[in-house]
Design a protein that fits this description.
Layout (H helix, E strand, L loop, with lengths): L2 H68 L5 H21 L4 H24 L7 H128 L2 H6 L1
Helix pairs in contact: 1-2, 1-4, 2-3, 3-4
Length: 268
């Protein structure tokens, strides 16, 4: 393995490792952003639910005070229906934050306050008197419930508002880091692709060079084989005539030797 090939392998490995690391980091950030968006929607749903409860309670309290001022007892059923809707909205809030123990405890306490308020209104209507002292006591009791409610309402709202701001800041930080992260991924992806392309080009060039060199050697070898065959053929042709003469001479010598006696052969 040549130095260039080893260098290409090292560069390829580094680029691949960094690319995988950056991809994993970016995917992790995307996953966290998705979780943050879900929590963001979760906090918004809680704030929306608590504001709906607060709006219904304000409307119900205003209607109740108007009834007390103008002495419209026939409008009390509407107030009771409003309280039923209020408790239903509170159950919705509880179902949303059931996985948050701290907020769930506050929501349950909020529901208890609203249930006590509802029972007080429902039980007080038959005993309601038009005297100013009775009205004052009634309103004072309602204000007590409202004070308890306001404390829990503010606590739930502030906690979710803080969480919402924190998640908004986290989202903003992710947005700021998204562009640099994508640029880094693009750079290393480009380096990775370029190094792979260069490696393939160099490998292909080497293969072509070796193939051409091997082809040239094969052609040289074939040419040498042909020359060797020609030489062998010429040599064989030139050797045949002396060999034929030697063979004829040996035949004549054998015949002559057969005609001589042993004494003559010894004399020779």
């Amino acid at each position: 393995m040549t130095k260039l090939t080893r260098l290409m392998y090292v560069l390829f490995s580094i680029c691949m490792s960094v690319f995988i690391l950056l991809s994993f980091s970016y995917m992790n950030r995307v996953r966290k952003l998705d979780e943050n968006i879900k929590r963001f929607e979760y906090s918004n749903s809680i704030l929306l639910a608590i504001e709906q409860i607060n709006g219904i309670l304000n409307a119900n309290g205003s209607r109740l005070r108007n009834i007390l001022i103008v002495n419209q007892k026939e409008a009390f059923p509407d107030v009771l229906v409003g309280n039923v809707v209020l408790l239903s909205r509170t159950d919705t809030l509880i179902s949303i934050i059931k996985n948050d123990p701290i907020q769930l405890e506050k929501a349950n306490a909020l529901k208890i306050v609203l249930e006590n308020r509802f029972n007080f209104i429902k039980d007080s209507i038959p005993l309601y008197s038009e005297s100013q002292s009775e009205k004052a006591k009634f309103i004072e009791r309602l204000n007590t419930f409202r004070s308890q409610y306001d404390q829990l309402y503010k606590s739930i709202r502030e906690a979710e508002s803080r969480a919402l701001n924190s998640r908004r800041e986290s989202r903003d930080r992710f947005d700021k880091l998204t562009t640099p992260a994508l640029i880094l991924l693009l750079i290393f992806a480009s380096i990775f692709i370029l190094s792979t392309f260069l490696y393939l080009i160099l490998t292909l060039k080497k293969r072509i060079y070796f193939q051409n060199e091997l082809q040239a050697k094969l052609e040289t070898l074939n040419l040498a084989n042909k020359e060797l065959e020609n030489l062998s053929r010429v040599t064989s042709h030139h050797i045949q005539e002396p060999m034929r003469k030697i063979r004829n001479f040996s035949t004549l010598l054998d015949k002559r030797m057969e005609q001589l006696s042993a004494d003559e052969i010894r004399q020779i």
